[in-house]
Specification:
Helix content is about 20%, strand content about 30%. The protein is an alpha+beta fold and about 625 residues long. Helix 8 (about 435-450) packs parallel to helix 9.
Amino acid sequence: MLRFNVRKCVAALMVLLLGAALSAESIVSKKKQSLSWSQNFSYKASLFSSAAEGSALSIDYTNTKDPYHKCKLYAKTPSWTTLGAGTAQGALLENGELVPLAASGTIVYTLTEAEAAALRKYGMAMNGYGMTVSAIRLSPAAGGGQQQSSGAQRRVVYEGGYDLGNWSFVSIGAEQFSSLEEGSALSVTTGPSPSSAENPAYLNIKLYSGTWRSLSTGTVGGDASKRGDVIVPRGVSGSFSYTLDGAEAAAVRADGLIVQGYAMTVQRLEILPPGSAASRSSPASGGAPVSAGQSGGAGTAAAKPAESPRAAPAPAAQASAATPFGRHGALHVSGAALCDAHNEPCQLYGMSTHGLNFGKDFSRYVNREAFATLRDDWNTNCIRLVLYPRDYNGWCNGGNQKELMQIVCDGIDYATELGMYVIVDWHVHNYRPLETKAQAKAFLSAVSEKYASYGNVLYEICNEPTGSPWKTTIKPYAEEIIPVIRSHAPDAVIIVGTDTWSQDIEGPLSDPLSFRNVMYTFHFYAQSHTDSFRRRVESAVQKGLPVFVTEFGTCDASGNGGFNAAQTRLWFDLLAKYNISHCNWSLSNKSETASVLNAWCGKTSSWSESDLTESGRLIRSHFRSLRP
């Protein structure tokens, strides 16, 4: 199984796997079929009379304007059996859905014996979303569909030319690594990408297991050197090998592999059996490897010493002076104030997404054009990315963690490209944060490691805890989570929630954390939280507590009903008086008062005034009135 963090790769990614000599039976041709979940396309059983174990279905497709495109195949048994036990090339296969890796191209799905038998007997059906199918072909088995390299025991697990660009990543499922053992090597062939021309000095690759455990204790050989957990290729085009130790091989067997990097493409990835790495290895501690001679002979000359690897540059550090980050730079906390790199008070303000784990209806607003609209038309400088741990499809509740991580990373990357600040929100909601502490550590460690040098990323470690006294629950939790983030991003601003849906700010006021660059959360919904709550906030700030309103609404606390512009404006006055940063809930078209977009609005960017709800119009007007 392959997973990519950006839906782009070379078109017709894996068609060559079938072999030019194979004959294919056409099932659908010349008649384009636009897929939808509400309409099923059916194909008679007679079309699959030759289907057998290892036969492959090739699906030619293009996507519609909607970037979220996927399809699902079924054998039309009495209970409609989903085809999902086989293997896919050119698409992510998960939960029975095929998610294409390109805007157009070919998906190759290889059938199991049971699936082939079901198609021969019952025929096939297909439905989907956001894509048009122009042809489907059935090809005979081709040695089980597994492409082999010239060496009998070498095995290709990826080929295609994926652009790593700016720390994008390729993810390959654990099923590809079942034979991996101590001493096995990963052979990686790289090529140029557009970003390599812009930043030729910054060539870096990192390898991880599928749980984002860094692979760093093995050895590197070939056209690369190694410092710590960073592999530095000598040039854009070349190949290197990474020999795994026993623990690393076990981790990749169990969880799969992630290849992440900067300024190059991954052209090919092979597994090499123990002892067959193509070149002499260099120790993990560093030192330039020695090139191997022809036919595996010893190298005749030492390679030129490699330069000390440089970390990939944080794009936010290069942001235009006209962008929010370009004007203000990395932030820090001074007393009760959030300050910029010039030690001037800085107020962040912008939109909060809805739960990114609740499906594409909410995560689709994580796109560059949406963030550009919020920056340029709405005058915002910050976006808050909301990931629920325990709610539906959440990080700890059955959600696809790699996919959710990718959405969050995409959001950070878009914000960074636009010179905006971004809050990564571990959205503890209505429970004690200690209940998901271990998962919070793993998630926040992975994100903060990846974005360690990014001065525009803030971390919110628990959104709205309840039943969680500050001294006995939230503070001990924060004292464990903050060092995890700080081990990678020592200067990042970290925002800590407070009890009773982040309203009990008196707890940290009387017993603050000892860490620097920490702020404390307060949330309000204008219809429910009025004068007495404003007095609490004002008192805390006057006494020196750094408060960040990471979530507020114009309505009652349920998020629905009770739109109250007058009370909202009173809150705006208080936020302005004390320069308090704030994010509005929420950037979505959910049918509730708190949403800024009308339920019928299908746009994911460039919204007009008529696309906005009553709340949305008030919020946009407010943001546009603030100082850039």
